[in-house]
Amino acid sequence: MRGVIMHAPGDVRVEDRDTPTIERPTDAIIRVTATCICGSDLWPYRGVEPVDHTPMGHEYVGVVSEIGADVKNVEVGDFVVGSFVASDNTCEICRAGYQSRCVHNVMMGSIGTQAEYARIPLADGTLVPTPGTPDPDLIPSLLAASDVLGTGWFAAVAAEAGPGKTVAVVGDGAVGLLAILAAKQLGAERIIAMSRHADRQELARRFGATDIVEERGREGAAKIKELTNGLGAHSVVEAVGTQESMDQAIRATRPGGHIGFVGVAHNVSIDGLRLFFSGVHLHGGPAPVRRFLPDLIQLIWDREIDPGVVFDLTLPLEEAAEGYRAMDERRATKVLLTV
Amino acid sequence: MRGVIMHAPGDVRVEDRDTPTIERPTDAIIRVTATCICGSDLWPYRGVEPVDHTPMGHEYVGVVSEIGADVKNVEVGDFVVGSFVASDNTCEICRAGYQSRCVHNVMMGSIGTQAEYARIPLADGTLVPTPGTPDPDLIPSLLAASDVLGTGWFAAVAAEAGPGKTVAVVGDGAVGLLAILAAKQLGAERIIAMSRHADRQELARRFGATDIVEERGREGAAKIKELTNGLGAHSVVEAVGTQESMDQAIRATRPGGHIGFVGVAHNVSIDGLRLFFSGVHLHGGPAPVRRFLPDLIQLIWDREIDPGVVFDLTLPLEEAAEGYRAMDERRATKVLLTV
Fold first, then answer.
1. Rounded distance, CA A312 to CA A323, Å?
2. CB-CB: which of A97, A265, A278 is closest to B276?
3. Is the CB of residue B168 less than 8 Å from the CB of residue B231?
């Protein structure tokens, strides 16, 4: 089969890979319908994380083509969505809603879903079938549920977005934009998008942002306080993962407020005394997307949300290298690869 | 009046100070019945925080001797307990339960309650009268409510201690010990005290600890995991405020678990990536003691809890210097000063 390999930073190629087979009785194989490039794929692309002839990709939707002997919850032919972390969905951590930290978790990035087929470990726990074969126009939104929507949703939940709350979102990438959509769905009263790009501001407003703040850092946080009687937002989503964005999030949150952070923190250090006196709640990490998948699939199926619009470039798998370039150069927010 | 002044690190004296008077119509003056020395008073005593002829103390119980023109909730003669932070209890932050971050907050440490009298700003919001004049043996427990009990209670609440939960407590000072009492009252199933001092272990067990772990740091966290099927505790209280104790708390908490941190963090730095992958909830800060005071006073009044036993040395105010020495040298956990 064909699949994406990152040979080295900046060097993405589509090559022949072995077609995956069932390795354990709990595995399933899916024929990938669509996959995509994640903001986190840019870390190795830019040389910030190590990479060496690595199969890429961890987001996927597709059709089950083969199941292991122990698989009971999905059948060959099912159209399925899964999280970027495979999980048994039965261990104590999964049952508490933290499937991305399942005691048997497998990172799908270690398998590489930017390919024609993918092996899905722990298929019963990981995969959620859609109610039927989706209309083609639903594919991007279902694919978004696999990571960026689920991650944005988790961030909004971790930030305790809800009725009566003012929510500020730091980061206008796909995850930040979808955290806005989530905050809106969760009933937030006011949603402040922090963005200085006109096209992303437009998408933010479409997803439910009521205010836009273009300032960053201390000035951005000061602006949030200005908009909230000097108190700060009740809920802040941090969807970038830099020192500046984390500082901005802490400064923008009122005492007793909540920060949901989902940007993979790179060289971020949080001063204990400052966190102490901020009085905020801080929660984040790799999103337990599986917790939210059934509800998200239903919302998409019922056409109540359209997260797929974050994909602003669609390319065939063979042109993955151009997709990476477009995201790296910020010509695209999020690239969908058709398989 | 007589009051404690810290001239410089290690130099504590009891001297004549001006007796306080009503400065604003929302003030009250109390005749202090008992006050105490806080673990945080040791930071300046040891030269870690600056100090220069500073009036000391922020914990207090006493009898109202004078009220300002606008004070309505307390009367002259009332026996009252107040938090270490004066708060209006009406602003948006107070109403959300974060009175220690009241928009009009006054730190009682800036007034100095280790004295015969103290001015209490925002008396209506700050002071809670007891149901009547307390029996003398209840005084230590009511005094504990003013800070250490309220702080330990907040830590347990921030760590989401409750039924079915395993709670680990890092720190066996007065606050850590009272967090154990709080976790017990909140219904925790299992409470692990981290302590290597026999006398404090005994008090920990009296307050409700079911297990004792003597190891510290990585070994301590490994022991907590061993006791919890390799997962870590659901709830961890961090009541020290050092890098080691914070690291230990993060390591000891399961993914999705909660850390309540109330140790005033000194030179503590939290690595963002590690926090990200830990998947914990982190919440702490100066405890909003006022939120819990009415319930805590009632529990003490009904003799359902006896937090006052954390005071293991009682001295007259005039001997405050010996009290500081005893705590500094760890001869005493917590010193009560009678006035």
1. 11
2. A265
3. no
Contact A270 B273 (CB under 8 A): no
A246 has a chain B CB within 8 A of its CB: yes
Measured in degrees and rounded to the nearest 5, phi and psi for residue B206 equal: -60, -35
Rounded to whole angstroms, the Cα distance separating A173 from A239 reads 8
Distance of CA A53 to the CA centre of its chain: 24
CB of A96 within 8 Å of a chain B CB? The answer is yes
Q: Which two tokens stand for residue A91?
A: 């261990």
Q: Closest approach of chain A CAs to the CA of B263, in angstroms?
A: 9
Whether A103 sits inside 8 A of B285 (CB atoms) is no
A191: which strand partners? Answer: A167
pLDDT digits (tens, 9 = 90+) for A21-55: 999 999 999 999 999 999 889 999 999 999 999 99
Q: Collect the ranges in chain B with pLDDT lower than 50.
A: none
* Domains of chain B, CATH where assigned: 2-147+288-338 (3.90.180.10), 151-284 (3.40.50.720)
How does pLDDT run across B111-152, given as a tens digit for each residue? 999 999 999 999 999 999 999 999 999 999 999 999 999 999
Q: Which residues of A127-145 are buried (b: 16+ CB within 10 A; e: fewer)?
A: bbebeeebeeebbbbbbbb
Q: What are phi and psi of A32, to 5 degrees?
A: -70, 130
Q: Does B269 touch chain A (CB under 8 A)?
A: yes
| Among B106, B96, B138, CA closest to B299 | B138
- Measured between CA atoms, the residue of chain B closest to residue A229 is B92
| A269–B266 CB contact, under 8 Å | no
Question: CB distance B279–A285 less than 8 Å?
Answer: yes
* pTM exceeds 0.90 for this model: yes
pLDDT in tens, A217-252: 999 999 999 999 999 999 999 999 999 999 999 999
Least CB–CB distance from A256: residue in B96, B270, B273: B96
Q: Give Cα B259 distance to the centre of its chain.
A: 17
Determine which of A102, A165, A270, A278 to mutate to test the interface with B (most B C-beta atoms within 10 Å).
A270
Q: How far apart are CA B21 and CA B23, in angstroms?
A: 6
DSSP assignment of B172-202: -SHHHHHHHHHHHHTTBSEEEEE---HHHHH
How many Cα neighbours within 13 Å face the side chain of A283?
A: 31
